[in-house]
Amino acid sequence: MANKCAITMTVNGKQYHSEVEPRMLLVHYLRDALDLTGTHIGCDTSQCGACTVLLNGDSVKACTVLAVQADGSEVTTIEGLAPEGSLHPIQEGFWEKHGLQCGFCTPGMIMASYQLLKNNPNPTDQLLKNNPNPTEAEIRKGLEGNICRCTGYQNIVRAVQHAAEQMRTAATAPVGAGE
Ligand code: FES
Ligand code: FES
């Protein structure tokens, strides 16, 4: 039996201590050890993006990272994007704009969308921190690592635009007006 490595990881705000085989992929650790099956596996070639999660705040394909490489890191999966019982604006966008059909690609699409919106502050207003306003081309570029076999992508673009609009509205809300 292969030697196991001790790892500590904070996933969706909760700390886990585990013993894993050195070859175990992060996506398998999340799904099989932590039972966080919202992160999907759609290929074995690092192409589909269904496994996308946030590692220390930036999106990665969890099938390209070993669990031991994420030792000491903070990971956010689709289950941790919004507090229990609520939806993140990006999730709301996919709901409102019908950004999915079978839904298999959706968790990865949403996590990749998070990254592209995070990297896209509105250049017209530098005072607002969270003020994304991506063009359609920027959205398509930001999601080019994620494959959807159902939607034709148009509604996914609309979903991200809707999310950006919601996030801009939230960002301009007066302090104390809630999330
Ligand atoms: S399962 Fe990771 S990119 Fe397809
Ligand atoms: S909704 Fe089916 S793969 Fe994207």
List the helices and strands and how they pair.
Elements: E1 5-11, E2 14-20, H1 26-33, E3 52-55, E4 58-61, E5 74-76, H2 89-96, H3 106-118, H4 136-142, H5 154-172
Parallel strand pairs: 1-5
Antiparallel strand pairs: 1-2, 3-4, 3-5
Helix pairs in contact: 2-5
This protein binds FE2/S2 (inorganic) cluster (2 copies).
The site of one FE2/S2 (inorganic) cluster has 11 residues, from loops.
Structure write-up:
There is one protein chain. This protein is α+β, with helices and mostly antiparallel strands and 179 residues long. The chain is 31% helix and 14% strand. It has 5 helices and 5 strands; from the N terminus they run ββαβββαααα. Strands 2-1-5-3-4 form a 5-stranded mixed β-sheet, sandwiched between helices. Helix 2 packs across helix 5. The longest helix has 19 residues, at 154-172. The protein is globular. Residues 175-179 have low confidence and may be disordered. One FE2/S2 (inorganic) cluster is lined by residues 100-105, 148-151.
